[in-house]
Write a structure and sequence with these properties.
Two copies of one chain form a homodimer.
Chain A: E1 5-8, E2 12-18, E3 21-22, E4 26-28, H1 30-38, E5 44-50, H2 56-64, E6 68-74, E7 81-86, E8 93-99, E9 119-122, H3 127-136, E10 142-146, H4 149-154, H5 156-163, E11 168-172, H6 173-180, H7 185-194, E12 199-203, E13 209-213, E14 216-220, H8 234-247, H9 255-272, H10 286-300
Parallel strand pairs in A: 1-5, 1-9, 2-7, 5-6, 9-10, 10-11, 11-12
Antiparallel strand pairs in A: 2-3, 2-4, 7-8, 12-13, 13-14
Helix pairs in contact in A: 1-8, 3-5, 6-7, 8-9, 9-10
Chain lengths: 303, 303
Amino acid sequence: MKNTILVVGSVALDSVQTVHGRTSKALGGSAVYFSLAASQFTKVRAIGVVGEDFPDAFRSVLRRRNINLDGIKVMPGRTFHWKGSYDRNFKNATTIFTHLNVFEHFNPRLDRSHDGCGILFLANIDPDLQWDVFRQMKKPRLTACDTMNYWITRKKSALKKLLSRVNLLFINEEEALQFTKEHNLIRAARILARMGPQIIVIKKGDSGAMMFCDGKVLPLPAYPVEKVVDPTGAGDTFAGGFLGYLAACPDWRNFNALRRAMAYGTVLASFDVEDFSVKKTARLAKSEIRNRYNKYVRSLSIS
Amino acid sequence: MKNTILVVGSVALDSVQTVHGRTSKALGGSAVYFSLAASQFTKVRAIGVVGEDFPDAFRSVLRRRNINLDGIKVMPGRTFHWKGSYDRNFKNATTIFTHLNVFEHFNPRLDRSHDGCGILFLANIDPDLQWDVFRQMKKPRLTACDTMNYWITRKKSALKKLLSRVNLLFINEEEALQFTKEHNLIRAARILARMGPQIIVIKKGDSGAMMFCDGKVLPLPAYPVEKVVDPTGAGDTFAGGFLGYLAACPDWRNFNALRRAMAYGTVLASFDVEDFSVKKTARLAKSEIRNRYNKYVRSLSIS
């Protein structure tokens, strides 16, 4: 159990339009993207909520990857549904609508079956709920969270309370700058680290990611993808690859383990963007991950 | 002589304003930034033009780095003068004015003393002039050029003619996409490579750079800089570090040499942005470069 990750986040239906096509009510949500990536490395239990319309076929997709869905509650009503589109260069997502539906009343509850889960990932939800889950958790050995501009603007103090306790923060570049009122990522990361987390991972989209830990800075480029089809979920997939790999390491504080986690996060995210929804990450073979990881790490090894 | 780089480009006075201060008529220009970086690795001869107002002190800065200035002509009139400012996050430069002055009539001429220079760098000038210089050159073993949106819009066919002959193209991310009408850098690089150059280096500012060569892709992150003071000249400094290192390698086609060149370009550019004008790169010790290079390369070496 100490290597099991408990993830709390959204389970959603996504309708997405990009230059390469569109989906209608495809499987999505932060907990889903995260779980599929993390399950490549360790056991995952997901906590979330869906409506009565949530297709059994989507449950099967997750179960096939051995993700424990006991914590996914069915509530009367419809599943969270996001509709959005991306411009040609995938720099900007435009939300057409966000129907929270049953997610509006999401009230995550842990039970005895979650005792002993070693690792907690609080995906991007209301920081009050994140805090609530954090407090229900019994002595996890590693806790991590994500957030977004919406909460930074509206619930900054709740977010700060949470940050004072978690070990690791995943955050987007723009959000890190917004949160800290800074213009430089290193300074922003230093301010965020002073709020609590020992590790700050700043996600920069197709420019890669940066990790800050113990005063050390590690920037890594994105794995080059020639045909980006749909970037939805890339950040959560990154976090899943990162934490999933780290969960299986004896000491998550080890800097070399953390660097490999960055590389695995990068590689998993690169698969995610190559197709719509979870098409690629739901049926990814370990050998595909290993091959791309080796190629990526080799290319960066300059001697 | 076969390791000597001949660089043709602008020698300028730059008046720059950033959040960290301002300069007035400081030393600048593509040939200057390039030469200072490249001179750390190999011999450099610069070709350019200045006005009668060009300060002797600036000549001394370049001579101190052993840069041959015999090809810098003095013409009646004033030196090229650019005035601009950067916003807080250094994403956008606003040009306040560009006084071309003597640079408007720049007509670079090679003479016998340039015979045998092994390497040619055509900095960002009118592609007709770049072509003219290219044709005056006697069998260089490596030729490289840079360009900008202005020429891509106005002189595309002249630029294409040049690209059909040079070995290496340095180009900004936005310019590569504009040139090729593409939205993905890998596809853009492939199109550019089909025009001629065996090596395409796409500069992405604080997101690093990407090299394309023989179908291989190498993305590298920027070296993390905590206090960016003035990004002017970072691209030319990158090219100087890249080509300077490569000039001293026995075979510039060697992929490992090219990867090290990418890392040296990255490191030199990181010094450039830490102070105004050439303040940092004009007096850089070999040991500073070596230390930062080692730190950068070590951080990327994941095992």
